[in-house]
Amino acid sequence: MADIVSPLPGIFYRKPGPDKDPYANEGDAIEAGQTIGVVEIMKQFSEIRSDVAGTLESFAVEDSGTVNPGDVIATVSEG
Questions:
Q1: Which pTM does this prediction carry?
Q2: In angstroms, rounded to a whole number, what is the distance separating the alpha carbons of residues 40 and 44?
Q3: How many CA atoms lie within 13 A of 28 on its CB side?
Q4: CB-neighbour burial class of residue 34 (10 A; exposed 0-12, middle 13-18, buried 19+)
Q5: CB 53 within 8 A of CB 32
Q6: 36-67 pLDDT, tens digit each
Q7: Is the dihedral of CA 38, 35, 74, 3 positive or negative?
Q8: Which of 68, 73, 54, 62 is nearest to 5 (CA)?
Q9: HEC readout, the chain
Q10: In sequence order, which residues have a C-beta less than 8 Å from that of residue 44 and are 6 or more positions away?
Q11: pLDDT tens digits, 19-41
């Protein structure tokens, strides 16, 4: 298992826009470097990417949830 952590404080979004599909869903196979969401701080958006390939097991933060540096956003089962 590998945790994806927030590098900065802000608001975590799972989708690129309100009417868009999520970057990834729980249970999806993801690649290393794949974007799973964005963190917005002061109208600037930073992509959150997985460092490992595997299955996105769970999100620890809800869509539009507040995150701080080091907070776990999601967990990936490697493989």
A1: 0.93
A2: 5
A3: 14
A4: middle
A5: yes
A6: 999 999 999 999 999 999 999 999 999 999 99
A7: negative
A8: 73
A9: CEEEECCCCEEEECCCCCCCCCCCCCCCEECCCCEEEEEEECCEEEEEECCCCEEEEEECCCCCEEECCCCEEEEEEEC
A10: none
A11: 999 999 999 999 999 999 999 99
